[in-house]
Amino acid sequence: GEEVAQTPKHLVRGEGQKAKLYCAPIKGHSYVFWYQQVLKNEFKFLISFQNENVFDETGMPKERFSAKCLPNSPCSLEIQATKLEDSAVYFCASSLTGGDQPQHFGDGTRLSIL
Amino acid sequence: ELKVEQNPLFLSMQEGKNYTIYCNYSTTSDRLYWYRQDPGKSLESLFVLLSNGAVKQEGRLMASLDTKARLSTLHITAAVHDLSATYFCAVPSNSGYALNFGKGTSLLVTP
């Protein structure tokens, strides 16, 4: 498609439960990025993929967070044993190439941990 | 660690006025991106600046990049209400293409 599609739009989980978010990048884009937006204006990079391979995972909290981009499937970001501090909007972005093209963002998934 | 600082963080301006938003970053980069975010919405790409001295204009917005000073500016000319939004600058990390965002400038244009 021509847009980055993220599902669900809103996800509510109790503390300790698992949360799984999905992202379909723009068709033909090789790179996928996940960002966490907390406190309305602070973005934190989590992980990026080049096709199905992890490209950069320097921002990923490895204990509870994992992500995949498998062929012919939406990319996913999974959080095990969620904590209150995981409440945020999670944005997925894709780009045609890595550096010279803008990253196109999806509408985000608002994760609320109760 | 790459740091990106924007100022001002909040800006209230009257319609028809001009103003500039500044974006400073701490390490060498020859690329910088500007995005717009409306409340509760996604990020919309405004400008991609790819070299020192790059200048791009779209409507009432003009962005420039000075890589030697590690500074980008977003200039607003004759502001209109539709420009009210939060504007982010972002610089890619040296280890890959991950974007490091400033904290955003919340712009409110009033009559």
> What is the radius of gyration of chain B?
13 Å
How many alpha or pi helices of chain B? Answer: 0
Poorly predicted regions of chain A: none
Quaternary organisation:
heterodimer
Name the chain pair whose interface involves the most residues.
Answer: A-B, 26 and 25 residues
Estimate the helix proportion of chain A, in percent: under 10%
Question: What does the model show?
Answer:
The complex is a heterodimer of chains A (114) and B (111). Chain A has 114 residues and is mostly beta strands. Chain A contains no helices and 11 strands. Chain A has strands at residues 5-7, 10-13, 19-24, 31-38, 42-50, 53-56, 65-68, 75-79, 88-95, 104-105, 109-113. In chain A, the strands form 2 sheets. In chain A, strands 2, 4, 5, 6, 9, 10 and 11 form a 7-stranded mixed β-sheet that branches. In chain A, strand 5 and strand 6 form a beta hairpin. Chain B is an all-beta fold and 111 residues long. The radius of gyration of chain B is 13 Å and the shape is globular. Chain A binds chain B through residues 31, 33, 35, 41-43, 45, 48, 55-56, 58-59, 91, 93, 95, 98-108, and chain B through 31, 33, 35, 41-45, 48, 50, 86, 88, 90, 92-93, 95-101, 103-104, 106.
Put the structure in a nutshell:
Chain A is mainly β. Helix content of chain A is 0%, strand content 51%.
Outline the fold blueprint.
The complex is a heterodimer of chains A (114) and B (111).
Chain A: E1 5-7, E2 10-13, E3 19-24, E4 31-38, E5 42-50, E6 53-56, E7 65-68, E8 75-79, E9 88-95, E10 104-105, E11 109-113
Parallel strand pairs in A: 2-11
Antiparallel strand pairs in A: 1-3, 3-8, 4-5, 4-9, 5-6, 7-8, 9-10, 9-11
Chain B: E1 4-7, E2 10-14, E3 19-25, E4 32-37, E5 43-49, E6 55-58, E7 61-66, E8 71-76, E9 85-92, E10 99-101, E11 105-110
Parallel strand pairs in B: 2-11
Antiparallel strand pairs in B: 1-3, 3-8, 4-5, 4-9, 6-7, 7-8, 9-10, 9-11
